[in-house]
Each structure stands twice: as structure tokens, then as C-alpha cells.
Design goal:
409 residues, Extracellular Endonuclease, Chain A, seven-stranded mixed sheet, elongated
Length: 409
């Protein structure tokens, strides 16, 4: 039997903290005009130039990143800071939670924390937006919430409803860190329900479909018995979860919203209501940069997404684009100066790249052999050399302006 339930977790001490990125303008125009003049006047070529002009390595995008790091005193951020300070009585810390801007957007995550059983716990997480350029997340780190978890049943031999794990508020495969502010003790059963009903869909939206998502998880209705002499120590709570796809064509309005309240109760294997967790199938148009971006999965994940380096795929797609300028074979036949880029790697490159050129991502969805995985990794290590070689070919066939417009300086 459970002991009488105690007061809820204290929320007035540890800080609120957040990762912040910013909405930024995308560079356009000048390079597109150069490319249009140098190569052709077709709408498709103009689209190619715009795509190149948005390359994440451009000086303008680098300047945008620096700007994003300095916007934390904007009226919008100040208002959110005040709102979250009321929630937990803490302070706000700001960090970038994004690897770079994509299509003028960056991931923005806010956490609120509390105190439970002698440790900091996460009570609130809101990502708005959450995109494929999120930082790499991680499993729970050693020592995090050690005091609290030492008071709860955690034996791996226990059934899922009778053991606790440190559950992520923001899943580690979409950037969730394995630190106390992003963790709360829930039963393994509740963790499984959270993943199947909500997290699996969010991961697919962000990492596979390259969507921008609004995602919020709040810990509610906390009850616990963590008394030193108690035999039946427990923490009961609800995870209130909601996620939506954001539509850039409609002012980042929410579409395809899913929601669930996940109950975590020691000794109870709740079958949570799945009525509001059905994916309607809506997907917003992918941004040009997001479409070819390779997200970072959890540092503890056994799954690795294979594909071609973003800039390499982008350049090849523009040059080849259904054979209008070059074919993959034509380009590869003229690449003779890259050490180690021999016939086998060229064949692998041509075979896999040709499958992807009709789409908008460099990710390889099919099953690869161990040898091919190794080959893709080797090709990506040569990406800069391959791009440089392509630049020389374009300059020889056209001129330096064309090369600069397509490849960059």
C-alpha cells in the first residue's frame, strides 16, 4: 500500500532556462541575378540560384547567426522570460539550441524547473519552433538526479509499471539534453506510452519530414512519498503533451495538432487515451535548406542517418537537375585529381545520388551495406575537394562568375 500522499514538488527554487534561436531573413537576390545572367533565364535556373544563395556557409548567413546570439533582450524574449519566472520563481538562462539558421528560422526551447527529493527536476518544456537543426541530444547523464532516483524503485527486473526511469521532457533524438532540467522520474510504462503516442510522431515530423513543430510537455498533478523511513516510496505525475506542425505559408499557424495526458503511477499500467494522437497527414512545404539538412540524433542512439553532406548534395542537385547542365556521370568522368576517389566510390556516389536528385534531401532511406556506409562516410570527408573540383569544371565550361554563383568563393 502507498503511504499517505505528501505535498507536490516545490517549484520556487531552481532556475528556468532556455535555448534560444531567432527568426531571420534569408539571403536572396544578388547571386541569383548573377547566375541567371551567366547561365540562362529559365525560371528553373533562377530557382537554382536562389537555392544556392541560401547556402548555410555564406557570409551573410554567418552574420545572421551572430545576430541570433544577440537578440535575447528583444521585447518578445523579455515577455517570455517574465511569464516563465512567474511559473517557477526562478531566473532565465539563454543558450543557442540550434546548430544554425535554416530558411530564416532556428530552434527555440524553454525549460522551467523545480525541486524534488533533493534534486532539480524538469517541470515544463516548450519548443517553438523545433526544427531539424536542433542540437544533438543525449541519454540521461551519469549523476543527474542521483539522490532522487536513489529513493525510488529502479531495478531493471521490475515490471515497467513498478520501476522508475529518468524521462526526457524533450526527446533526446530531437535535441533533448540528458540533464536534470529536461528530466523527470516516471514509470517505464509511462515512458513507453509517451514515446508511442507523442514522441515517435514528433521525431518523424522533425527529423524525417523536416517540419517546424510546436511541442510542449508539462508535468502536472505531482504527488510523492519520499520519506526516509517509508517502504513504498513513489512519485506520481501526469505529463500533459501537445505537438503541432507549424505552417510557414500561414504565419506559422498550428496544423495537425496531437495531444495526450500520460499518467505515471507506480503499480499501474495505464492505457492512455489515444484519440487525440492521430496524425492527420498534413505536412507543410519544406524549406529549401531544411529539406537537405541532416539532423543529429541522440549521442546514445544506435541509429545513424546516412546521406550526402548538405552542401555537396545542394551543389550536385543544381548542376545536374535532371541533366540540364551536366549528368552525374559526366561530372565524375572529369574528376581525376582527388586522391582516393576511385572507380568504386564514384560508382557508389553516382548510384545513390541519382536516386535522390528527383527529391529534395540528401538522406538515403534505403538499407545500405556496411561497405556502402563506409563509402558514403569517405565521400563526405572528400566533400570540399569534390566541390572544388566541380568548381574548376564549371569555370572551365562557363566562367568564374558562374562558378562563384553556384559554388561560392
Amino acid at each position: 500500500m502507498k503511504q499517505p500522499k505528501s505535498q507536490t514538488a516545490q517549484t520556487q527554487t531552481p532556475p528556468v532556462w532556455r535555448g534560444k534561436g531567432a527568426a531571420l531573413e534569408s539571403p536572396q537576390g544578388e547571386q541569383a541575378a548573377q547566375l541567371e545572367t551567366a547561365i540562362a533565364t529559365s525560371p528553373q535556373r533562377l530557382r537554382q540560384a536562389q537555392f544556392t544563395a541560401m547556402a548555410d556557409t555564406s557570409p551573410r548567413t554567418t552574420a545572421q547567426r551572430k545576430l541570433a546570439e544577440g537578440i535575447h533582450n528583444s521585447p518578445y524574449i523579455t515577455a517570455q522570460r517574465k511569464q516563465l519566472e512567474k511559473l517557477s520563481g526562478g531566473t532565465v538562462q539563454l543558450q543557442a539550441w540550434s546548430r544554425q539558421a535554416l530558411d530564416g528560422r532556428q530552434t527555440d526551447v524553454t525549460w522551467a524547473t523545480g525541486s524534488l527529493g533533493g534534486d532539480v527536476v524538469g517541470l515544463h518544456m516548450e519548443a517553438s519552433p523545433l526544427g531539424p537543426e536542433h542540437l544533438q541530444g543525449s541519454p540521461p547523464q551519469s549523476g543527474e538526479q542521483a539522490t532522487l532516483m536513489g529513493k525510488l524503485p529502479t531495478a531493471t527486473t521490475n515490471s515497467n509499471e513498478n520501476k522508475y526511469i529518468r524521462g526526457h521532457l524533450l526527446n533526446d533524438n530531437v535535441g533533448g539534453p540528458g540533464v536534470a532540467a529536461n528530466l523527470f522520474p516516471i514509470t517505464a510504462n509511462a515512458n513507453s506510452q509517451h514515446h508511442s503516442l507523442i514522441e515517435s510522431k514528433v521525431k518523424n515530423w522533425v527529423n524525417v519530414d523536416k517540419q517546424w513543430v510546436h511541442y510542449k510537455v508539462e508535468v502536472q498533478n505531482i504527488d510523492h512519498n519520499l520519506n526516509k523511513g517509508g517502504k513504498n516510496k513513489y512519485v506520481d505525475a501526469d505529463l500533459k503533451c501537445e505537438a503541432s506542425i507549424l505552417d510557414p505559408t500561414n504565419g506559422m499557424g498550428k496544423k495537425n495538432t496531437i495531444s495526450a495526458t500520460i499518467k505515471s503511477e507506480l503499480g499501474s499500467a495505464h492505457d492512455n487515451d489515444a484519440k487525440k494522437t492521430q496524425d492527420s497527414g498534413f505536412r507543410a512545404p519544406k524549406g529549401l535548406q531544411a529539406a537537405v539538412y541532416l539532423p543529429l540524433l541522440s549521442s546514445g542512439s544506435n541509429t545513424k542517418v546516412y546521406g550526402f553532406a548538405e552542401k555537396l548534395f545542394s551543389v550536385m542537385k543544381q548542376l545536374v537537375d535532371y541533366g540540364e547542365m551536366y549528368t552525374v556521370s559526366e561530372l565524375l568522368q572529369r574528376m581525376d585529381h582527388i586522391q582516393g576517389f576511385g572507380p568504386k566510390l564514384k560508382t557508389l556516389f553516382e548510384t545513390e545520388l541519382s536516386k535522390l536528385l528527383s527529391g529534395d534531401t540528401g538522406e538515403i532511406s534505403g538499407v545500405l551495406s556496411t561497405q556502402d556506409k563506409s563509402g558514403i562516410s569517405r565521400i563526405n570527408k572528400m566533400a570540399e575537394q569534390i566541390i572544388e573540383e566541380i568548381g574548376m569544371i564549371v569555370e572551365e565550361d562557363y566562367d568564374d562568375e558562374t562558378r562563384a554563383s553556384l559554388i561560392g568563393d
